[in-house]
């Protein structure tokens, strides 16, 4: 039973989604900052799902002229440098909305540092540059408000966690730094994931959530000054738990919406990383590759899914696979010197794109 006014549109959306499985991959190429050119990235003017990466190779002895090696990729959608935040969000708004129908929804931004993950997820301060997280919050509250006319009542709980070096940090913590608690991920008997000592804030208005997001950003940037640019080496996970009830119709639904800004995916030369940097690199490689493994295992319907091999996948367990819809952004930097990293990111994302995970079904009782 669908409870929105725009039932048909959503049913169509769900049908399409189910036909394809419940994972989407969107690629986004950010604009060039500070001039230069990005001839190595070719976006088709007619096909908004295709992208070609081309590399000129130096001519070999005895041959004249440059040869070009090309790599073709296709995703559910490719956004070029001129795509606005609004355009990007329009493509995912139905997915986000399905969280109110009882689907778990998980959206990630994957890519090297500087490729536009935070811009995509959080965005800037102006209305125009608002990213996926604030737009999602806005939409969820608007949609929930509309559904109250049909007898629905919703309650929301927000949390915001950072995972750094395989340890969790509460981004909504406002107490004394010296009293910061430790956190453990726990799985209850009914398979619900919770984090010990974490702030789970009940919220009733959009403004309250936007305020929490501001606190989280503040918390993230404070840590950054101590440990220069830590945010690019940690994952941040915004989670909104939604419970809906329609007493008149005797229907309840429950879901979790997760929006994740992943750590930078760049490969660091082992020889260059020492001490703390080496530890960070190992933790990031482990969690990002495990994310890939989890998605692949789900796609292959394997009986064992290695969720517990990293904090990230363990935390997101209920939002990945089974009853959930997943969207991954692969963010790409257009500068020629990012060619290698772009190729790696696009290959990872292609692997994810090829996966078709089960069929999503809503959590209804
Ligand atoms: P990441 O989080 O992947 O490290 P950022 O989101 O911080 O990367 O982006 C790097 C820089 O590029 C930032 O200054 C950001 O504002 C800018 N940027 C990224 N994507 C866009 C975009 N689509 N339009 C305009 N500026 C962007
Ligand atoms: Mg960032």
UniProtKB/TrEMBL annotation:
It comes from the Eukaryota. One of its GO terms (cellular component) is microtubule. GO terms for biological process: microtubule-based movement. Residues 22-355 form the Kinesin motor domain. GO terms for molecular function: ATP binding; microtubule binding; microtubule motor activity. Belongs to the TRAFAC class myosin-kinesin ATPase superfamily. Kinesin family. KIN-14 subfamily. ATP binds at residues 111-118. This is Kinesin-like protein. It comes from Merluccius polli. Its main location: cytoplasm. Keywords: ATP-binding, Coiled coil, Cytoplasm, Cytoskeleton, Microtubule, Motor protein, Nucleotide-binding. It is found in: Cytoplasm, Cytoskeleton. The gene is CTK2_0.
């Amino acid at each position: 039973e669908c409870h929105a006014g725009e039932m048909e549109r959503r049913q169509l959306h769900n049908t399409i989604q189910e036909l394809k499985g419940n994972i989407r991959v969107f690629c986004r190429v950010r604009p060039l900052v500070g001039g230069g050119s990005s001839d190595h990235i070719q976006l088709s003017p007619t096909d908004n799902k295709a992208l070609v990466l081309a590399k000129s190779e130096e001519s070999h002895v005895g041959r004249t002229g440059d040869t070009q090696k090309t790599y073709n990729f296709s995703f559910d959608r490719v956004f070029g440098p001129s795509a606005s935040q609004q355009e990007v969000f329009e493509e995912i708004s139905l997915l986000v909305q399905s969280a109110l129908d009882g689907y778990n929804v998980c959206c990630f931004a994957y890519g090297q540092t500087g490729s536009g993950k935070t811009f995509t997820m959080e965005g800037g301060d102006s209305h125009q540059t608002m990213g996926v997280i604030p737009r999602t919050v806005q939409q969820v509250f608007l949609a929930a408000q509309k559904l109250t006319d049909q007898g629905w009542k919703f309650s929301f709980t927000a949390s915001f966690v950072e995972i750094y070096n395989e340890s969790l940090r509460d981004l909504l913590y406002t107490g004394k730094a010296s009293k910061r608690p430790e956190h453990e991920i726990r799985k209850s008997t009914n398979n619900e994931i919770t984090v010990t000592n974490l702030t789970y804030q009940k919220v009733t208005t959009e403004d309250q959530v936007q305020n929490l997001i501001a606190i989280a950003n503040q918390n993230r940037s404070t840590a950054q000054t101590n440990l220069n640019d830590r945010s690019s080496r940690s994952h941040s996970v915004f989670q909104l738990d939604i419970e809906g009830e329609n007493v008149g119709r005797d229907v309840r639904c429950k879901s979790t919406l997760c929006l994740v800004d992943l750590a930078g995916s760049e490969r660091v030369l082992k020889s260059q990383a020492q001490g703390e940097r080496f530890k960070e690199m190992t933790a990031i490689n482990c969690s990002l590759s495990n994310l890939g493994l989890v998605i692949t295992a789900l796609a292959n319907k394997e009986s064992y899914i290695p969720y517990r091999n990293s904090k990230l996948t363990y935390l997101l367990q209920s939002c990945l696979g089974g009853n959930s819809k997943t969207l991954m952004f692969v963010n790409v930097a257009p500068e020629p010197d990012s060619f290698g990293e772009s190729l790696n990111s696009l290959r990872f994302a292609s692997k994810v794109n090829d996966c078709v995970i089960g069929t999503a079904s809503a959590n209804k009782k």
